[in-house]
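Lab notebook, design round three. We kept the backbone fixed and only want residue identities now. Task for the bench partner: fill in a sequence for the structure below.
Input C-alpha cells:
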C-alpha cells in the first residue's frame, strides 16, 4: 500500500502516510525502512521525502553485488578444485610408496603430526581390538579431547577396547571424566601402580610405542613376534590391574593407596631415589615423599637404610604394607 502510494505521488513522506492511512508512526517508519533496504525507495533522512525507484533498477542495485560475490566464490572454488586435482598424483605416488613399505617390521615416525595421522589411519582400519596403556599419571586435557571422538567411533563400530592407567590417574578430574565417557561407550579401563610401558596395539598385528630419543615420536611395529610379546606383557599387567572407579569410594582409594605403598616398598628396597620412584609411579615428587614418610613411620624406621633393613626383616616384599605393619607390631 505504501509503495503504491509512493508510485502514484512520485515521492512519499512519513508524515503523509501517517496522515492518510492512520497507521502508527512506528509502523509506517518500519515499512518505509524495509522498502529502502529493498532499494524501492531512496531518501536522504528518516522523514523523507523518499523518491520512488523502479523495481527493475532496485533489482539491479540489490542483486548485482550479490551476483558478483557468487562469481568470485565460484572462481575461488574452481581454483581450489584445480589445486586439489594437481595434488592427486602426489597423493597417489605417496600412497603407493606407503603400501610398498607396509611390509617393513619397524618404522620410525619422528614428527608428532605424522604420529597422529598414523594413529587415525590404524584406528580407521581396526576391526576387532585396541589395547592402550598410558603410564605417567594424569593425561593432558587436550590429549584426552583429541582422542575422544576417535575412541568413540571405534567403540561404536563394535571394536573392543582396553586401557591401562596408573593409580595416580584416578585423582585427576579430567582423566576421570574421560574414563567415564569411555566406560559408558563400552570400553574397559583399569589401573595399576607400576610395571608397564606406553603402547597402543591394533588388532594384535600392529603396535605403536614411543621412540627413545624422540618422546613425541613413535615406533610402528609390525613384526608379529614382537607384537605378540607386547600383547603378553599387556595381558599380564591387565590381570594385575583393578577397575578404574569413576566415582571412587573410600575403600577403593585406600586399596589403591596400599597398592602404591607396596610398589614403593619394593623400590625402596632396591635403593631407588625418591625422584625415580615418583616417575615410575606416575606421581609428583611431593606425593611420593608423603607416601615414603608414611611407610617409614609405619615401620618405625629412623632413615632410609633402617627402612631397607626393616623391609627385609619383616618380609614386606612378599606381604605388602598392610601385612608388614602387623608383622612389625608383632615383632
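Proposed sequence:
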Amino acid at each position: 500500500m505504501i509503495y503504491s502510494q509512493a508510485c502514484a505521488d512520485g515521492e512519499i513522506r512519513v508524515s503523509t502516510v501517517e496522515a492518510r492511512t492512520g497507521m502508527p508512526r512506528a509502523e509506517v517508519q518500519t515499512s518505509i525502512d524495509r522498502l529502502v533496504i529493498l532499494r524501492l525507495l531512496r531518501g536522504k533522512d528518516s522523514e523523507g521525502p523518499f523518491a520512488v525507484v523502479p523495481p527493475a533498477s532496485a533489482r539491479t542495485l540489490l542483486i548485482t553485488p550479490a551476483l558478483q560475490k557468487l562469481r568470485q566464490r565460484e572462481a575461488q572454488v574452481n581454483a581450489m578444485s584445480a589445486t586439489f586435482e594437481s595434488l592427486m598424483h602426489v597423493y597417489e605416488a605417496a600412497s603407493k610408496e606407503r603400501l610398498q613399505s607396509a611390509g617393513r617390521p619397524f618404522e620410525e615416525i619422528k614428527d608428532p603430526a605424522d604420529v597422529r595421522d598414523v594413529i587415525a589411519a590404524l584406528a580407521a582400519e581396526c576391526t576387532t581390538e585396541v589395547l592402550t596403556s598410558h603410564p605417567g599419571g594424569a593425561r593432558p586435557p587436550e590429549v584426552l579431547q583429541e582422542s575422544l571422538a576417535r575412541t568413540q567411533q571405534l567403540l561404536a563400530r563394535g571394536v573392543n577396547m582396553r586401557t591401562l592407567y596408573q593409580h595416580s590417574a584416578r585423582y585427576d578430574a579430567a582423566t576421570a571424566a574421560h574414563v567415564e565417557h569411555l566406560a559408558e561407550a563400552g570400553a574397559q579401563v583399569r589401573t595399576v601402580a607400576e610395571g608397564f610401558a606406553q603402547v597402543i596395539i591394533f588388532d594384535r598385528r600392529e603396535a605403536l610405542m614411543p621412540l627413545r630419543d624422540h618422546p613425541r615420536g613413535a615406533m610402528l611395529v609390525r613384526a608379529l613376534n614382537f607384537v605378540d610379546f607386547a600383547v603378553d606383557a599387556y595381558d599380564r599387567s591387565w590381570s594385575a590391574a583393578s577397575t578404574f572407579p569413576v566415582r571412587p569410594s573410600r575403600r577403593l582409594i585406600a586399596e589403591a593407596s596400599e597398592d602404591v605403598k607396596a610398589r614403593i616398598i619394593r623400590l625402596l628396597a632396591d635403593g631407588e631415589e625418591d625422584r625415580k620412584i615418583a616417575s615410575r609411579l606416575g606421581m609428583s615428587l611431593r606425593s611420593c615423599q608423603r607416601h615414603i614418610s608414611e611407610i617409614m613411620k609405619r615401620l618405625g624406621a629412623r632413615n632410609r637404610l633402617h627402612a631397607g633393613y626393616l623391609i627385609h626383616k619383616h618380609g614386606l616384599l612378599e606381604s605388602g604394607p598392610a601385612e608388614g605393619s602387623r608383622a612389625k607390631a608383632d615383632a
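Keep this in mind before ordering anything: The longest strand covers residues 160-166.
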